[in-house]
Amino acid sequence: MAVTALPRRRHYHHHGRLRLLIPAISAVSGALLLLFALISLVAPSPADNDHLHPLRRRVVNNVVDDIGNSEFRVPTSGGKLDRDIWRSSRSKFYYGCSNASQNFTEAEAITHPNRYLVIATSGGLNQQRTGIIDAVVAARILNATLVVPKLDQKSFWKDASNFSDIFDADWFISRLSKDVKIIKELPRRAGKIWFPYRMRVPRKCSPRCYQNRVLPNLLKKHAVQLSKFDYRLSNKLETDLQKLRCRVNYHALKFTDPIAEMGEKLVHRIRTRSKHYIALHLRFEPDMLAFSGCYYGGGDKERKELGAIRKRWKTLHHVNPDKGRRQGRCPLTPEEVGLMLRALGYNNDVHIYVASGEVYGGEETLAPLKALFPNFHSKDTLASKQELDAISSFSARMAALDFIVCDESDVFVTNNNGNMAKMLAGRRRYYGHKPTIRPNAKNLFRLFPNRGNMTWEVFASNVRTYQRGFMGEPMEVKPGRGEFHENPHSCICEDSEAKKKLESGPRKFGKVNGVTRKDVWEVGDDQNDDGNDNEEQGGLTQMMKRIKMVFY
Ligand SMILES: *[C@@H]1O[C@H](CO)[C@@H](O)[C@H](O)[C@H]1NC(C)=O
Ligand SMILES: *[C@@H]1O[C@H](CO)[C@@H](O)[C@H](O)[C@H]1NC(C)=O
Ligand SMILES: *[C@@H]1O[C@H](CO)[C@@H](O)[C@H](O)[C@H]1NC(C)=O
Ligand SMILES: *[C@@H]1O[C@H](CO)[C@@H](O)[C@H](O)[C@H]1NC(C)=O
Ligand SMILES: *[C@@H]1O[C@H](CO)[C@@H](O)[C@H](O)[C@H]1NC(C)=O
Q1: pLDDT tens-digit profile of 197-230?
Q2: What is the mean pLDDT of the chain?
Q3: What is the rounded CA–CA span in Å between residue 542 and residue 523?
Q4: Is the CB of 97 under 6 A from ligand 1?
Q5: Which end of the chain is more exposed for a tag (fewer CB within 10 A), N or C?
Q6: pLDDT at 537
Q7: Ligand 4 centre from 283 Cα, in Å?
Q8: Between residues 148 and 38, which one has the greater pLDDT?
Q9: SS3 449
Q10: What is d(CA 539, CA 526) in angstroms, rounded to the nearest whole number?
Q11: Would you say residue 107 has pLDDT above 80?
Q12: What is the reported pTM?
């Protein structure tokens, strides 16, 4: 089966080098083709004995025709690897631990009467989840009673659901009763509705910042509403407060029964077809690509379309797409994710669930991924129309379903570093280090454009090397690196037996590249471009090359 990739690959040759290369390559490949013609006369069917001719495979990968098209031979099998592709090898030595220490006073003893904290969260489901977690900790810092947070119903995500439509509010209140006093509604004052004093706190406000900014208002007005609340508490906190974050995130926030049941139903439907599955959270929406300023080789049509969307953000300055790629800030295409997975050992019979919004380029963009993994599932293939109709107008509920199916997966992979990816990455560490693959985009992007001139073995071995430290293994990220929700180090404990064993050897942390772990939504500062990468500059986007996948 041969699948033509989108004509979206850039290719970086210098003009001069290319001019010299093309005749040379055509001459060599011409000669080789002749040789093959001769060989095939004496050889049986070419399809089933490729493995007998390693020479042929290597050469076929080097075929480049005179307009720069080439073939990339991709195996249908992920090959034999020395690792279990469904499990992290050292995960059994670690466990999630979020119980409070003995010093942590019960809520009842510290909650001041007449101090009410009201929170209005902001953003999509997972950004709001961050806000809910930090709201509980903020109330604890202020010794205040928390009112069940109000969800953002007006943002871009437009969803009229309130907290108790998404999360089990009674469970939330009772599960945290020893930590923070939580009530459903602000009491009335003198028989009338009480409007709290409204204010905002800066992002990543420290406990001292809450005491300085919020406490005086709380003492004066007795009820304060913090608006636009998401990541509003500092990353670093004392251990007991970090553990409280984990109790909220991993134990107190439970989706309502209808959402959880629907999620489990989808998971069950995949599991009846396959023991294991991969979940891919794919972000490749037009607006996301436009925002990132990345270029995917679609020529003037793509530049025009994405450029028009990009104008929506008036404050965005010009970005250099090549630089974004080099810095690992461009989301991988569906095809690139598929190739990475095959290189990491996943066969074409593996079932994959894809959680995504609108994909730029639609089916055409998804086709190579579907060719690599024909057992392709999504909400639309797993749920009936009636089931979907019931919730499709609620974006938060749709997001919750994807959250559940991705969370339950054996292997989770993303092509982005957004809020859902971070939230799930941390959660999967807490619950036994379930494999979570984050593409090392900075290095992979040097590899992808050149795949047409290397063998599968070389390509795959490079992918595996680059992905070390990006697979969700324990201790892969240094404690304190990344956002707490992504790397909840205070809530991960080591088995004492394992500790002894590990202490005898050197402790190594995976290499972490600050840039690749940055949120892809954070567009870089081009003024800092040092311009010393002239070799690659401009070259990436100068030429488009078709690389046709051919399976063997
Ligand atoms: C945490 O506390 C619960 C009871 O509240 C207990 O069952 C559990 O074993 C504790 N976990 C750890 C790791 O101490
Ligand atoms: C409890 O507090 C005491 C004194 O403040 C401190 O020495 C001890 O380390 C704390 N214990 C824990 C488990 O945090
Ligand atoms: C909250 O209560 C604790 C324990 O009584 C106290 O140490 C702390 O200063 C109080 N904080 C605020 C902001 O009231
Ligand atoms: C949340 O919305 C539901 C309807 O979707 C409603 O029945 C319930 O009263 C609302 N709760 C709050 C606290 O507003
Ligand atoms: C593949 O091509 C790229 C540029 O197009 C070049 O830099 C690289 O060295 C080539 N690799 C091989 C194995 O020929």
Answers
A1: 999 999 999 999 999 999 999 999 999 999 999 9
A2: 82
A3: 22
A4: yes
A5: N
A6: 35
A7: 31
A8: 148
A9: helix
A10: 18
A11: yes
A12: 0.81
- The domain ranges of the chain are 2-74, 107-254, 258-543
* Ligand 3, pocket-test mutation among 104, 108, 110, most atoms within 8 A of CB: 110
Q: In what order do the strands lie in the sheet with 70-74?
A: 2-4, 547-551, 70-74
Find the residues whose C-beta lies inside 6 A of ligand 5: 11-13, 450, 453-454
Q: Which of 253, 183, 196, 252 is nearest to 226 (CA)?
A: 196
Percent of the chain exceeding pLDDT 90 equals 60
- The CATH number of 107-254, from 2.40.30.200, 3.40.50.300, 3.40.50.11340, 3.40.190.10, is 3.40.50.11340
246 lines ligand 1 (CB under 6 A): no
Ligand 4 center from residue 152 Cα (angstroms)? 14
The CA 164 to ligand 4 mean position distance, Å, reads 7
Which residue's CA is the closest to the ligand 3 atom numbered 12?
142
Report the 10 Å Cβ neighbour count for 268: 11
Measured CA to CA, the distance from residue 244 to residue 246 in angstroms comes to 5
Identity of residue 136: V
The residues with which 281 forms a beta bridge, in sequence order, are 355, 414
Note the ligand closest to the C-alpha atom of 102: 2
pLDDT value at residue 68: 59
